[in-house]
């Protein structure tokens, strides 16, 4: 099958859903049997989950649920937390702080360490702030975001994970929606109990699947909480116990993830991560050359999967977006306090491609002329 | 594109996910842009929702969410009900009674009218029982199931809807997962506030999309409850208000539903319903001829989309399933009290096909020889 080209843009550089991998299109372009009946489905599910565990750097169980990435986030919180539980959210951007809103809506006692959106964990005295907050609120769970897409940053998590372990916090829950497959994740070494991800970012699949790794501690806590709902993760334990699926599984969704993970493993994880890092560097250096400043402060860690840059001063965001679109380049805007000021180039998955980035930079340069 | 044939069975007659419609495969076998960015997506969403509203017999807003059909069920309950709310569940099968378990897990005060699983609403004194229960518990919501798949029955809902209206119950919430597109639904005439459906039954699409119609009363109640979660329906109101999508929408999922609804509308709804009814009759009469009794009692309404029949006495269920599979016929088992005793032929969507049914009946006959 030939390389899929978006009908919508010659230069698709959105922060997801990204252009599909050709193998993913091939996997979804067909009929399957019933995932509840055919004996081929469960082995595919388990094999896919295992490949994704490899991408996460864990040997914990991995659960695949039908729904957009937010399903993984809600599922992890609701499955592990009861009303009144203390939660510490670490935010360096819209999604990190958004976890606080989610936990608050569930009636949890939330302590929020909200760091500047252009920084990453480790900048300034952020680790000391987090440590003090943990000692103060004694949380059941710490939440953090690996790649903060709207800010274009990647949070280092090793020290946070070590702190979690040292201070005896039961759970560390990490949103890796925009990093899984594009950046190294070492869930085991970083003591992450729940890695949450989605299909439509670095995996280059449609936005139909949620992925969550579950540590033994997380399974125990889930069994105790016994939350029920579409986003409940505990029912998926039966897949590992007795091969029974809760609900009707999406064979297409699992097949898409299988093809996506396979493509990454065939390339080699180190090679894939290097490709993302190289294209990200190309993007940052190219923008600097053109005179477009990036959003994160210089000592923050830039994301290898997405670059957040400043909308040029002589443009409004809608006019800038339109100027780029007229040159075939589709980019994303940003959210929260950065909305209207920051635009984003998503170079993840199939879009982490040096030729595509070259075209994107040429379009940016031309629009600025 | 040629008619898709399941690799898994020459005669796929499962109760869903059914064999995909060729137009659906064509719709999902491609790359799309970002549903949050490209101007083509929202018109497609709204047009698809409108077509599905037509299938439901309503002009209420219809919401399309990414997830398996159970997402529609959980979403409707959690979006409309608060802890302590009185709910009346009407069950003539596993799914109808299952709604009681779901509402109970949410802390609602549940009154359960559980009718025999081989009957349908209207049999015996069922309507009097329901009326008495409504007067006793004064529910915020009545739940019912249109097609009770595990029982192979279709509940008449006109009288229940009239009763709901007459007694001033705010909400009637109907699971139409296994009937939408295969049987006439007149949500407006039947006073249904929430019709809940999924993509993988009569619509012949993969199990990735949930569909819910929302009456003005239901929107008001949702705004008051203000439930938050992946399955929250209220955030989808913004699509109709200001064109903003909550979360990342699935363009593939919506395109699949669009193709599915289009195929049904092209055939003509009356013709499609007639096709289902004819194949269902062919199934019941064929089984009677062979000597396989159907499960519902004679005065119950049989489903036009699925037939539940008794596993022949000389077979265990696994042996019967295997005997049919050896003849190329894949059927479904049943759940709850019917598990092991009842098997099901799903003749919905693409599988409501007289030739396929002829092959299925020949396989059953051969297995019994």
UniProtKB/TrEMBL annotation, chains A, B:
Residues 45-333 form the Aminotransferase class V domain. Its cofactor is pyridoxal 5'-phosphate. GO terms for molecular function: alanine-glyoxylate transaminase activity; L-serine-pyruvate transaminase activity. GO terms for biological process: glycine biosynthetic process, by transamination of glyoxylate. The keyword Transferase applies. SUPFAM superfamilies: PLP-dependent transferases. Keywords: Aminotransferase, Pyridoxal phosphate, Pyruvate, Transferase. The modification N6-(pyridoxal phosphate)lysine is found at residue 201. Substrate binds at residue 344. Transmembrane segments: none annotated. Pfam families: Aminotran_5. It comes from the Bacteria. Belongs to the class-V pyridoxal-phosphate-dependent aminotransferase family. This is Serine-pyruvate transaminase. It comes from uncultured delta proteobacterium.
